[in-house]
Amino acid sequence: MPLKVKATAVLAIAGAAAMSAIALSVPAASAATLHCGVRCVTLASQSLGSSEVIAVSGNGSVLMAPGFNPREDFIGLPVGTVAELAQAGKISKSLAAIYGQEVVYELSYAPAGALTGDCLGVASPASGAAVTLQHCGAPTNDQPTPSWEAQKGTLWIGVYRDHKGNFEPYVNVAASTHGSVVLTAGAAGGALKIKFMSDVAGKVASNQMWESVIGVNGQTTTWITPTGNEPSWPGR
Fold first, then answer.
1. Which of 71, 86, 131, 156 could be 170's S-S partner, Cβ–Cβ 3.0 to 4.6 Å?
2. What is the pLDDT of residues 138-191, one digit of tens each?
3. Pairing between strand 170-172 and 156-158?
């Protein structure tokens, strides 16, 4: 993990998160390649459902039809809770005041199961910025640290308290200094961006709500709203 923080508390979170009683009509998505296997994850937005999942195109992230496509392969790595990382001086204490025990993740790009040292991140820490691949540390591949605030743009807070069923928003750490800036879906086949959270009467906009889908295409499991209990991956 690039922050070199041993976040034992988050890894010890027991059991799966309880599902909301709200019935969602959006079907489970399917993605990941045979080589990446059961630990691979991709995300599907609530607004577009199973027909579009996060994938990599060039250095950017897009929404793409699911299939045996290595560009859809990510490993979800829980790094620690917001409170733990703030206490370690790695992220802002103001975020800890808001999000406390919510879990911080990296989404490590691993086409066909091969970790690359790149993670889903942002081109700049500003609302409206494109979501791209950014260097996130081990395993090293001699890439430079991003010029703006090392690696924080690859950290995402999964906000479980705002979850609805299997969906929750993902707040970008680097961009959220003055408000919650979250992973946001656009049109089918289009690029992803980060934008300020749209929350009306306690309900986050559907294009900012994401479902984690784990496993091989055709045999995937919708991860019950993750709380740090995802399968671990060796060597990180």
1. 156
2. 545 566 655 445 678 999 999 999 999 999 999 999 999 889 999 999 988 889
3. antiparallel
DSSP E strands, the chain: 40-45, 53-57, 60-64, 74-81, 103-109, 118-122, 131-135, 156-158, 167-168, 170-172, 181-184, 193-196, 199-200, 203-204, 210-214, 221-222
Is domain 8-13+29-222 given the CATH code 1.10.357.30 in the classification? no
Q: Which of 95, 88, 139 is nearest to 118 (CA)?
A: 139
pLDDT in tens, 58-79: 889 999 888 888 999 998 888 8
In angstroms, rounded to a whole number, what is the distance separating the alpha carbons of residues 168 and 87?
A: 25
Locate 18 and state its tokens: 């309880």
Q: What is the DSSP string of 131-189?
A: EEEEE--SSP-SPPPPSSSTTGGG-EEE-GGG-BTTEE-EEETTT-SSS-EEEE--STT
Distance CA 28, CA 41 (A): 13
